[in-house]
Automatic annotation (TrEMBL):
Annotated InterPro entries: ClpP/crotonase-like_dom_sf (IPR029045), Enoyl-CoA_hydra/iso (IPR001753), Enoyl-CoA_hydra_C (IPR014748)
Organism: Pseudofrankia asymbiotica
GO MF, one example: catalytic activity
Similarity field: Belongs to the enoyl-CoA hydratase/isomerase family.
Domain of life: Bacteria
Protein name (Swiss-Prot/TrEMBL): Enoyl-CoA hydratase
Coiled coil: none
UniProt cross-references to Pfam families, sorted A to Z: ECH_1
Length: 263
């Protein structure tokens, strides 16, 4: 049974962690699959949005730390110092965060540790009412990883991030929504439908323009207002060169929905 399932439909690439017997704990095969998928999606113009989710009612319980979980090392590159393993993981999550296509995480059940890092690295997160989030590291005597030292305080604020990280308590879906960790909470039975609908909308959008907007918003915390408006001018100049911009104007004048192609 494949540890990761990949489905492509109308520009949406759906990636499902598929180890339900382990609550989708991430092993070396998962990381290798994610490495390959991120490379493909980044360069394939037919791939216009990415959806991450998990099988069997859970997103992921984090890294598989069981003795038999990763005989070839955490990431499948042979056993080595944890520093090097975590640099490999960090690079993969950074690539997810920087992917020039919109990304969405659909979270049901547990989303723990490095899996929380994967979810927070996505542009949008939709969760079920049964979703449970946990920055578990301190409870295992570990420092933060998965990029959460950067993403968590940016989503929930520094004091709340310290509370979540210091105690390692479970954050229920309602609190995750109130604190800004997720965009929406829906009934568990509705999660696949809502996530697919959001994913299709992202995939049907003006892909190049969305990539520009993504870069603008992600960079906003490190720019002055003057730098931001200059970046807007340059980004708008690029957007004006796309076929999707012409289609957007044409559809407005013709009073119909746009049909973007991502070009």
């Amino acid at each position: 049974m494949a540890s990761t399932l990949v489905e492509r439909h109308d520009g949406l690439v759906t990636v499902t962690f598929n180890r339900p017997q382990k609550k989708n704990a991430l092993n070396a095969e998962n990381w290798g699959d994610l490495d390959r998928i991120l490379t493909e999606v980044a360069v394939n113009p037919e791939d216009r949005a990415l959806l991450l989710t998990g099988a069997g009612g859970n997103f992921s319980s984090g890294a598989d730390l069981s003795p038999n979980g990763n005989t070839g090392g955490l990431t499948g590159h042979g056993r080595q110092l944890i520093l090097h393993e975590m640099r490999i993981v960090g690079d993969l999550i950074n690539r997810l965060h920087r992917l020039p296509k919109p990304t969405l995480a659909a979270v049901d059940g547990v989303c723990v540790g490095v899996a929380l890092g994967l979810a927070l690295a996505c542009d949008l997160v939709v969760a079920s009412e049964q979703a449970r989030f946990c920055e578990v590291f301190a409870r295992r005597g570990l420092a933060l990883d998965g990029g959460t030292s950067w993403t968590l305080p940016r989503h929930v604020g520094l004091r709340r991030a310290k509370q979540i990280a210091f105690f390692g308590d479970i954050v229920e879906a309602g609190d995750a929504l109130a604190w800004g960790m997720v965009n929406e909470v829906v009934p568990a039975d509705d999660l696949p439908k809502v996530a697919a609908a959001w994913g299709r909308r992202l995939a049907a959008g003006p892909t190049t323009t969305l990539s520009l907007i993504k870069r603008q918003l992600d960079a906003s915390g490190s720019l002055t207002f003057e730098q931001a408006v200059e970046d807007e001018a340059r980004s708008q100049h690029i957007a004006y060169t796309t076929k999707d911009m012409a289609e957007g104007i044409r559809s407005f004048l013709e009073r119909r929905d746009p049909r973007f192609t991502g070009s």
